[in-house]
Amino acid sequence: MFAGTLTKNAETAATAYSGMIHSTRFDIAIQLEIRTKMSERSPDYDVTAVNKSGRKVRIGTAWNETGNTTGNPYISMQIDVGLGPFRVNAVQTKEAREAMTGEFEIIPLVSNTAMKSGSISGELTAMDADNAFAGYIANMMFDLDFMLIENTFKTEETHPDYRIEVSSPKGHPIRVGSAWMAKSSRTGNDYLSLLINTPDGDLRVNAVQNEEQRGGKTFSIIPFVESAGQERSDNTGLALVG
Predict the structure, then answer these.
(1) CA distance linking residue 92 with residue 31, whole number of Å
(2) E strands, 184-231, where?
(3) How far apart are CA 176 and CA 174, in angstroms?
(4) Domain definitions of the chain by residue range
(5) Cα(32)–Cα(194) distance, rounded to whole angstroms?
(6) How many CA atoms lie within 13 A of 195 on its CB side?
(7) Which of 174, 198, 216, 238 is 20 to 30 A away from residue 22, measured at CA?
(8) What Pfam families does this protein's entry cite (predicted)?
């Protein structure tokens, strides 16, 4: 569960990129410094930060990459701040590419593993404005308060309808997943399908209304259980970004 921003510096600057990376546990200023490549796949940058003692330390490496399907450039980073290594990508929105601003958004790399829902509790409530939802999800290992914010960049049917955000210790929004509006093919009732990125893998849950809740603003979050007969909505893809 990571988020942040990265900005390309002027060609004369000592560092190629500067930015911030946030999680629910930290807010860290980072820099990407060009390093000598020893081979084609060796890193293009060292990722550095300043620790509490004021010493600059190397916390990871980064590579210039190109999207296989889009052809758009992005930066892949592997970082370790003492909690174990994690992977994030720095990507540009369509508007940033067209304006050539050099502004990137840091997003978590989608996990290849699925986390079993197990015993999950949670609730989702529609807000009165901005087509947003507020809610929480919890089990014995974690407890997250989050918001569902409308995805105004949706251009394809498979793109998420909402992004799921939590806050870092300093209040910075962190995107931890996506949500799709869906309709049950069996009952015709509307529900939301949520994909939340956790350190243990991708967690899938549904937000549904029981008989008492139907027609109101509150949804109950229940585990997603996939079986041979499980109905699947065509628009509930697994991409964290549209």
Answers:
(1) 17
(2) 190-198, 201-208, 218-223
(3) 6
(4) 2-109, 120-223
(5) 33
(6) 25
(7) 238
(8) DUF736
Distance of CA 173 to the CA centre of its chain: 10
For residue 130, the cross-strand partners are none
What gap in Å lies between CA 35 and CA 167, rounded to an integer? 33
Residues (pLDDT < 50) of the chain are: 227-242
List 198's β-bridge partners, or say none: 201
Q: Which residue has the tokens 């065509």?
A: 234
Q: What is the pLDDT of residue 234?
A: 36
Handedness of CA 58, 59, 63, 64 (dihedral sign): negative
* DSSP per residue, 51-81: -TTS-EEEEEEEEEEE-TTT--EEEEEEE-S
53 CB-contact burial (10 Å; exposed 0-12 / middle 13-18 / buried 19+): exposed
- Three-state secondary-structure class, residue 94: helix
pLDDT of residue 199: 60
Q: What DSSP state is assigned to residue 140?
A: S
What per-residue confidence (pLDDT) applies to 233?
Answer: 38
Integer-rounded Cα radius of gyration of the chain: 20
pLDDT of residue 29: 94
Is there a contact between 18 and 9 (Cβ–Cβ < 8 Å)? Answer: yes
* pLDDT score of 230: 40
- List of residues 6+ apart from 48 with CB closer than 8 A: 15, 30, 31, 32, 33, 56, 57, 58, 59
The pTM score is 0.59
Q: In the structure encoding, which two tokens stand for residue 61, read together? A: 């490496």
